[in-house]
Amino acid sequence: MTEKTKPEIEFYEGDEPTELVIIDIEEGTGESAAPGATVDVHYLGVDFASGEEFDSSWSRGQSINFPLAQLISGWQQGIPGMKVGGRRQLIVPPALAYGPAGSGHQLSGRTLIFVIDLLGTR
Q1: CB within 10 Å: which end of the chain, N or C, has fewer?
Q2: PANTHER family per the record (predicted)?
Q3: What pLDDT, on a 0 to 100 scale, did the predictor assign at position 12?
């Protein structure tokens, strides 16, 4: 497998979606992530409206490893079925991210785009 680099976000054509949008950029060939799995990922997150990056494991120089159950609903729904070695884009509406505007999180009310590289699953 070739070493991936920090992804560039492809701008989504169309209106801000109200449902989770899953786009496979690159199909993996390894084990599939199961619902509730612990995953090792590299990811980039940007705001849908502004295109501004708000978080990136790439910027920290290391992947992160965590149980899907501890993540936003968009990730819990969007990562299962993804195969190790794959790269997937998720467009996550507020209801599946940090809730409606005023919910107390700095990203509440925002539609978010993530590009996720699945490095491992268990």
Answers
A1: N
A2: 39 KDA FK506-BINDING NUCLEAR PROTEIN (PTHR43811:SF19), FKBP-TYPE PEPTIDYL-PROLYL CIS-TRANS ISOMERASE FKPA (PTHR43811)
A3: 79
Summarised one tens digit per residue, pLDDT across range 51-64 is 999 999 999 999 99
Q: What is the pLDDT of residue 1?
A: 43
* β-bridge mates for residue 47, sequence order: 112
Mean pLDDT of 8-18: 85
Every domain of the chain and the residues it spans: 21-121
Q: State how far Cα 27 lies from the chain centre.
A: 15
Confirm if 113 and 90 have CB atoms less than 8 A apart: yes
Burial 5-40 (b: 16+ CB within 10 A, else e): eebeeeeeeeeeeeebbbeeeeebeeeebeeebebb
Yes or no: domain 21-121 corresponds to CATH 3.10.50.40: yes
Q: Tokens 């409206």, residue?
A: 49
Distance CA 57, CA 61 (A): 6
pTM of the model: 0.93
What is the enclosing helix (H) or strand (E) of 59? helix 57-60
